[in-house]
Predict the 3D structure of the following.
Amino acid sequence: MPGNDVKVIIGELNGELLELCEYDLQPDDIGVSRTKAGTVPGGSFTTISGKKIFDVLFTAPFIDDSYSISLVASDQRIWHYESKSNTGFRINSQSNAPLSGEISWQAIANGEST
């Protein structure tokens, strides 16, 4: 991931650099999870502009908004996500009809992982 370079000076003696280390840190290296997931009960959705919605807020944000979202629900709807940011996203049911089941979501950081 570009821009994650960190340079660490290990020590200095009489103004002379003893060792310089460079690291290209990835999200896993700095304690940022690449995967987040959860379940939302149907009763937790609120109605905005005639549609049931729920705002998912991550307890620990992603580094950026470069992640993929998967939604799986027991209620048959055309589910959408919107307002995606590094701190969360909005689930939109595209309907105001009551929800009886739950919706499961998963967010996975884009890119290769080893």
In short: Residues 1-31 form one domain. The chain has a mean pLDDT of 80.
